[in-house]
Amino acid sequence: MPTSATLPLANAETRYRVMFLSVGQSPRADIIDEMLASLDMPIDALEIGALDGLSKTEIEEFKVRPGEPSIVTRLADGSDIVISKPRITERMSRIAADFQPNEFDLIVILSTGLFRDFESTCPTVNAQRAMESMVISLAAHGSAVGLIQPLAQQVDELDIPALAPYKITASYAADGDKRLLASALVDLADCEIIVLNSVSFTEADRQMVAKASGKPVVLARRIIVSAIRLLLLGTHPVAAPGVSPEFEEKLQRLTPRERQVLSLVAEGLSNKAIARQLGISPKTVEIHRSNVMSKMEVNSANTLIRMVVAAGHP
Q: Phi, psi at residue 306, to the nearest 5°?
């Protein structure tokens, strides 16, 4: 059964029903509570972990095998486990496919590293797609981008075809490990922007890396928060906490549907994929997309993505 948490409100408002689907076991209050506080919006948050309800033996079956790409996640007892990325992705895909149309205002795939598009009839934030789109937009702008992965083997496993034309350097460090984070910065000394490429990294990690490096540092959680905010604003437009007045003014030019399209474009989705999530035609998406670019005063998706990143990283 999914666990839930509610962000308290001073008065009755329209509430957003958001499902967070994580790789490990719920609850993940260490991640979700921080994100809810950053959003400061009326959200009823529910959680499902892909390993929820499984026995210890069943969980062991998901451990990474030789030659498989890996992903690290957390169990309910607080311990970490390194599991098979392709096999856990398949399980998460089946879980997401079982959600009913309009069951949630939003589904959040709460993990970077999962390169699959999750089929859903609800608007969905795929953390990996959002991060990948953001990295490409920064690299395409001419910035040398450094990625910090949570596992050493993930540096060699890094295989994102869309990033091949760009200057991307990877290193690794566990969240909260100041020694490893400092070591990673040595590897990334020539990079202009650093990306903490896992939802396990915290705001404290970001601040420490930014102070030590003197460079802009992008946090996965903030990218996800930006995507959540934009999609929910599309459903019920409200003031956007934590957003600059200039960005907010441009957002107010958009219709609710255009705000949703903005977020999904920033995640790097095609018109067809956006159409599936929003239940509209690809041609209608194309019209909304053109309107978004005009109203936000940008001439490319990369510029739009950089704007969204900047809004989430004041």
A: -60, -35
